[in-house]
Design a protein that fits this description.
Elements: E1 2-6, H1 10-21, E2 28-32, H2 35-44, E3 49-53, H3 62-72, E4 78-82, H4 87-95, E5 100-103, H5 108-115, H6 124-128, H7 138-145, H8 156-165, H9 173-180, H10 184-194, H11 209-216, H12 218-230, H13 239-265, H14 270-278, H15 282-291, H16 303-324, H17 329-339, H18 348-359, H19 366-376
Parallel strand pairs: 1-2, 1-3, 3-4, 4-5
Helix pairs in contact: 1-16, 2-3, 8-12, 9-11, 10-11, 10-12, 11-12, 12-14, 13-14, 13-15, 13-18, 14-17, 15-16, 17-18, 18-19
């Protein structure tokens, strides 16, 4: 499905993209911030659903745009997203031939409830790829669970720790030391990192948990503990799932370390880049976790079934978890940039994350790496 989202507020547009993207796997999302660019997209690409804000930049309002689209196409669903909840505005939208009306402020559930009827009942990828319906019906099971990921068993402790990093006020080193002082594994990890070659700046040994946190900084300490928790969750899993989790954890760790190292070279705070790298395979982890929660599988998922299902649902599940965790916009942008970067991107932080994702690949393309290094002002020897 091709979906057009027209919204002039970038934060609201990003929120809608995340919510809609989590409804169903395999969506092609198009975005515009004014009626002119939206109309150009409409004319160049067949759309299956249009979400449009009422107040837009430019001459035409969202309602004007909706009327133009409706004149050309009488069937495509058009949903107005607006702060106008008065009777006159609702009636005007109805007369313009709109199919739905979502009033701001809204919850993710509000948007999903209004839009889900406009989506086909079968996951598009499953049909197009010809995935067989197994006795356990893994495709159907994963599709049913996609909008209800609050029950994940995989990452609850990691989520709690990661949430510390995007609070309005970071905790202090002392408060973290008190929180983790009785945890031998966390203490050992932070001491090891603090005394490592990357963290040892003054040639002295760090001997306490508080010193460790102070040495690396609160944000990086939180990121390191998150990495520890993310990498410890596969012990009781079935062999195929355990192996897949281990592989994805190692890939995420490589992206995190590459991103932190690049950030340090560019004199940026490494912690948020490291954290984004840790969440690189968040969607894959979520799919694996849900597959192990099937109430009555005829057999546990094997490698063949994982190879079919994980790529199908990773993006959808990743978006849903990011939304559920209320990840900040910047963090979602960082994670996405590690996978894909539009050709005209000039933001240094996103270029950095894309380079980190490229460097972590076993088959990294040297010409692309060199080009990104040049754009970032990094020499190839670093």
């Amino acid at each position: 499905m091709n979906i057009l989202i027209v919204e002039d507020d970038p934060l609201m547009r990003e929120l809608l993209l995340t919510i809609v993207g989590s409804i169903r796997n395999g969506l092609s999302m198009f975005e515009a911030d004014d009626s002119g660019s939206a109309w150009s997209l409409w004319c160049s690409t067949p759309m299956d659903l249009v979400l449009c804000d009422w107040n837009l930049q430019g001459i035409d309002s969202g309602l004007d745009l909706a009327r133009r689209i409706r004149k050309q196409n009488g069937k495509v669903p058009i949903v107005m997203v607006t702060g106008r909840g008065d009777r006159h505005s609702v009636i005007a939208s109805h007369r313009a031939g709109l199919n739905g009306y979502i009033v701001k402020p809204f919850t993710p559930d509000d948007v999903m409830a209004r839009l889900t009827p406009f989506f086909p009942s079968v996951t598009p990828q499953a049909e197009s790829l010809g995935v067989a319906r197994e006795p356990t019906d893994w495709i159907g099971w994963l599709n049913e669970q996609a909008n209800n990921l609050d029950h994940l068993t995989l990452l609850p402790e990691a989520q709690k720790v990661l949430t510390l990093q995007w609070q309005e006020e970071l905790p202090t080193a002392k408060s973290l030391a008190r929180l983790w002082q009785d945890d031998v594994i966390i203490t050992s990890r932070l001491l090891s990192v603090a005394n490592g070659s990357e963290m040892r700046r003054h040639g002295r040994t760090v001997s306490t948990l508080l010193e460790s946190i102070a040495t690396m900084g609160v944000s990086m300490a939180i990121a390191q503990v998150s990495a520890l928790l993310l990498n410890q969750n596969s012990g009781s899993r079935t062999p195929a799932v355990r192996n897949a989790m281990k592989r994805y954890a190692e890939e995420s760790q490589r992206v995190a370390e590459a991103a932190a190292k690049l950030a340090a070279r560019l004199r940026l705070d490494p912690a948020p880049y490291y954290t984004a790298g840790l969440l690189y395979r968040l969607g894959e982890f979520a799919v694996l976790d849900v597959m192990e929660q099937h109430p009555n599988p005829t057999s546990p998922p094997d490698e063949t079934m994982l190879d079919r299902c994980v790529p199908l649902f990773a993006s959808q599940y990743g978006n849903a978890v990011k939304l559920s965790w209320q990840l900040p916009l910047q963090m979602r942008e960082f994670i996405g940039a590690a996978y894909y970067l539009p050709p005209d991107t000039v933001r240094r932080d996103l270029l950095l994350m894309h380079l980190a994702g490229e460097l972590a690949l076993p088959d990294a393309r040297p010409e692309k790496v060199l080009r990104l290094q040049r754009v970032l002002g990094l020499d190839a020897s670093g």
